[in-house]
Write a structure and sequence with these properties.
Layout lengths: L4 E7 L4 E7 L4 E9 L7 E6 L10 E4 L5 H14 L9 E8 L10 E2 L2 H9 L8 H14 L5 E5 L9 H4 L5 H6 L9 H15 L7 E7 L3 E7 L2 E5 L21 H8 L5 H10 L2 H6 L4 H9 L3 H25 L4 E5 H6 L1 H8 L11 H5 L6 E2 L8 E4 L4 H13 L2
Parallel strand pairs: 1-6, 6-8, 9-12, 12-14
Antiparallel strand pairs: 1-2, 2-3, 3-4, 4-5, 7-8, 9-10, 10-11, 13-14
Amino acid sequence: MTASRVLVLNSGSSSVKYQLLDMADRSRLAAGLVERIGEDTSRLVHEPLVGPGAGAGRRERLGPIADHGAALKAVAAELAADGMGLDSPELAAVGHRVVHGGTRFTRPTVIDDEVLAEIRSLIPLAPLHNPANVTGIEVARSLRADLPQVAVFDTAFHATMPEHVARYAIDAATADAYSIRRYGFHGTSHAYVSRATARLLGKPVEDVNVIVLHLGNGASASAVRGGVCVETSMGLTPLEGLVMGTRSGDVDPAVVFHLARVGGFSVDEIDSLLNKKSGLLGMCGDNDMREVLRRAGEGDEAASLAFAAYVHRLKKYIGAYTAVLGRVDAVTFTAGVGENAHQVRAAALEGLAGLGLALDPEANAVRSGEPRLVSAEHARVAVAVVPTDEELEIATQAYALVTQ
């Protein structure tokens, strides 16, 4: 029996998302989520898609789950109940989403003690994410020490940015001493979507230049030339770039000094302000685009202003990345907002006919879970909507590595 299954784990500070995929046919076998880890109200939701539990719907378990170790053991038990436990000989690898790989990790990597120590050393660059990623890896290794564990890094796809793009224009010695440069994030999504866009256009990925707009609660843009990232909007951290649900995106760095000197804000308070209390939430009190659109449609001034700021930033990046690429074959929208909010797509591309962009209003208004073109027939640049699949991308990269 050929081992072809990959368990994908995305460990957050108080949650674990997981999917089990069979790479023989790229099918999804099971999926689930453990949330509120460490609380009395912990919740595990498991959905078997094949096996004895398939068709019965989701199974839900409520009650305390003390830590990530208990969470992964609970996940293993749910999978075992469907005949797909961690002891299965069909399991080829566990693929871990790791947010920050720094400059050291630019491709998927099999995890050993040295690699794990280096991922741990990168915690200062991603203090909210890498600690949880490390915990997930440690627990999974303890459960199946013999099984290849593969780290797939959010930053890796963007490691191809030219040095003059990745560098900030600050003192070089200081930048090097503190690893200050632009890394970019959402890399697995940008990688998957850029390739899927080429397939949608019926062209080799090497021949396609695409601007990918990953628009969820976190949002980022990338300029991808022939399958290679040459620019992305997020930087040292996921704070830079587009207006997001709770993050400010681009701001004058002197805002930080002003808040400290004039407002008396501490570093932690400024961090919280820009990451958790800004963006759509900061401007109008809602970070859910559906609610922002509803309120704006009813004439709410704060929601209308927030939406306008969100769209304006998108337009700026589309224009900038058109200049960076020189030739653009497609602009592709993905993630929760990008895939589902037709109003955002329409507003972001309004007035950009000079760049060759035009929507088919009827096609744009259709809701679908399939990759599709929504551009007008006469448009010089295609506009695509491609549902992202980061779990499949992680599984694909992990399986390719362990079967080389």
